[in-house]
Amino acid sequence: MVLRSSFDAFAKPIDSVRERSVSGGFITLLASATAAVLLISQLFIYLQVQTRHSMHLAHSVPSILFNNGGAAARKLVLNGQYHIPLKLHVTFPHLQCNSLDYAHDGNDSSSGKFEHYHSKPYTFTKRMPTLEEYKTAVGTKNTNRGSELQKQRREGCTVSGTIHIPRVGGTLSVSVSPDAWRRATSVLAFGMDLTGGSGNTEQVDPFHGRLPNVTHYVHDVTFGAPFPPGKNPLQGAHHVMDNGSGVALANVAVKLVPTTYKRTFHSERETYQASVSRHIVEPATLAAQRSMLLPGLMITYDFTPLAVRHVEKRENVFVFLSSLVGIVGGVFVTVGLVSGCLVNSAQAVAKKMD
């Protein structure tokens, strides 16, 4: 028992030797409050995420021609070696599904080529929009309700789905079908169907004596996995063709930046950031350029040669613990030194005054 007290590293002073005072209690309270504030601030700093960005050359991949690569090339793409998923969700509130066509790099749905190169379940589907999709596509100006709104909803079409595309530039379009466009222009110009259509009014004139209104709402277009810290610029875009005819081409150019995203305690994830520029091409411009493009939506995308690495991390936990220990010990040692100096100074002054 004597040996233990002799080598006690934390020996306590005897209670009779201690001198309790108001100033000593105030100093202890001040030291405790300072330590608590520093502890909370250190914890707040530790919980903050530090973001680091770096740029490097993107990994090059073979330029697989999805049109001419054959079955072997398509198998490589669909197996996930050189492809990313492309998700599309767009609503045309004034265009029926039988008058709508979609295509990717020249492979359109009307000829059957699209389904040949994008087999299920990786393909797009056309359907009547839901009530919420239709309301979003027509905007807040539409105040019709009930049966009238349901009837108008049947005049619209929603294209949605996911396909896998090679990691090379390409073009995706959703537009009036060539057959519907020929019928509409022939009926409008000559008052009759010159394309050999039957007597069915809907088939002869699908747009009731007017040009097709290709106003549309892009709910979502996503290339690859989304980038969580950033907002998708291809989401929630309303392209209104307010030129009187409703005919125009929404041309959207997309630059995709390969991005590696890593969060604390999570594995790395390959994502893509998108830089978007868009403009509406009026029918007069299309006619002047003798363009073969049909009214609707055209998305042209390409990949940048530079990639971005986005890393979110916290301070090392051992550094954090060391800081906490240093704060507690440092505060009390510092306060003890300061209070000792003040007490000794006061005692020296008191002796000289005596």
TrEMBL record:
InterPro entries assigned: Erv, Erv_C, Erv_N
Family: Belongs to the ERGIC family.
Cell location: Membrane
Sequence intervals crossing the membrane: 26-47, 317-338
Biological source species: Skeletonema marinoi
One of the record's GO cellular component terms: endoplasmic reticulum
Keyword terms of this UniProt record: Membrane, Transmembrane, Transmembrane helix
Pfam families cross-referenced by the UniProt entry: COPIIcoated_ERV, ERGIC_N
Endoplasmic reticulum vesicle transporter N-terminal domain boundaries: 6-101
Protein name, per record: Endoplasmic reticulum-Golgi intermediate compartment family protein
Domain Endoplasmic reticulum vesicle transporter C-terminal: from-to ranges: 141-338
Membrane topology according to the record: Multi-pass membrane protein
